[in-house]
Amino acid sequence: MKRNTWQREAVRTALTGTEGFVSAQVLHSHLRDTGSSIGLATVYRALASLEETGEVDALQQDGESLYRACTQGTHHHHLICRNCGTTVEISADPVEQWARQVAAEHGFTQANHVVDVFGLCAACTALAAAGGQVAEPGRVT
Amino acid sequence: MKRNTWQREAVRTALTGTEGFVSAQVLHSHLRDTGSSIGLATVYRALASLEETGEVDALQQDGESLYRACTQGTHHHHLICRNCGTTVEISADPVEQWARQVAAEHGFTQANHVVDVFGLCAACTALAAAGGQVAEPGRVT
DNA sequence: TGCTAAACGATAATCATTGTCAAAAAGGGT
DNA sequence: ACCCTTTTTGACAATGATTATCGTTTAGCA
């Protein structure tokens, strides 16, 4: 059976306490920085497991996977700041319908879709306008 | 200045002669199989360069980048068979507008988006129904 | 034809992710 | 509370795609 370990709980908690999407590596660093002795492989395993159960969302950027705790239990998409990682969960019913229809029109079955919107959030837009530097993605907010 | 080499041309040609999305590694194998002496690093460089100029589209799947020659010069999206890689280029004006609007509503600027629909094409759907096996992605069609 | 900077190719290096395996510990039964 | 079985962990090795390095080749032009 599936067991409850403090490690899995620590990953869940750390992810919930994070505003935007983070990489497994960054999440692991943060856990270590806060005194946890959790291993890197375990973080990867926990994230994969949590993704399977639908407790966290994942997306791929620049060839690395980023994770975030879901606040909505239902299917949704994301509006992500490519500077600070701040994320807004958005529902997109028209897009869902469009995707289904396009797939059907071309005889495709078992359709799913990847829909993400990236941009600069209001704060980072102001920052950039003030001449501020853009930081690397994957950072914690 | 930018130079025209037979290597870059070979990559462009090989990609044009391919139906679906392919990985750099697979494309390289095919070029070698057809007698070319092109190097792997060069294939990567050519693909990156072609993507920059907008001549080819790229998407990320399972942590690897896949490439395909664009037939439309304008912005568009893809409907991709996750079994055989067959791809249909689709325009999605309603989605473009939706993305722009959602970004603006939340104060995001410089918005772009990732929109891809995956599924099983008609042929592969029939194949699967007949008990056929699904092959791995990244293969050439 | 000769020059020079861009492009190439072989290979080493990088980096995220996954596999391995002995040691630790969760859950249930006694 | 203790033991037993099985899952999970953690340190580290292995993998696999992509990128950097660097000496050699070559496209484009005088």
Automatic annotation (TrEMBL), chains A, B:
UniProt keyword annotations, A-Z: Cytoplasm, DNA-binding, Metal-binding, Repressor, Transcription, Transcription regulation, Zinc
Subcellular location as annotated: Cytoplasm
Entry coiled-coil feature ranges: none
Domain of life: Bacteria
Pfam families per record: FUR
Record InterPro entries: FUR, Fur_C, WH-like_DNA-bd_sf, WH_DNA-bd_sf
Chief location of this protein within or outside the cell: cytoplasm
Gene3D superfamilies: 3.30.1490.190, Winged helix-like DNA-binding domain superfamily/Winged helix DNA-binding domain
Signal peptide: none
Transmembrane portions of the chain: none
Complexes and interactors: Homodimer.
The family this protein is said to belong to: Belongs to the Fur family.
Name assigned to this protein: Transcriptional repressor
Organism annotation: Frondihabitans sucicola
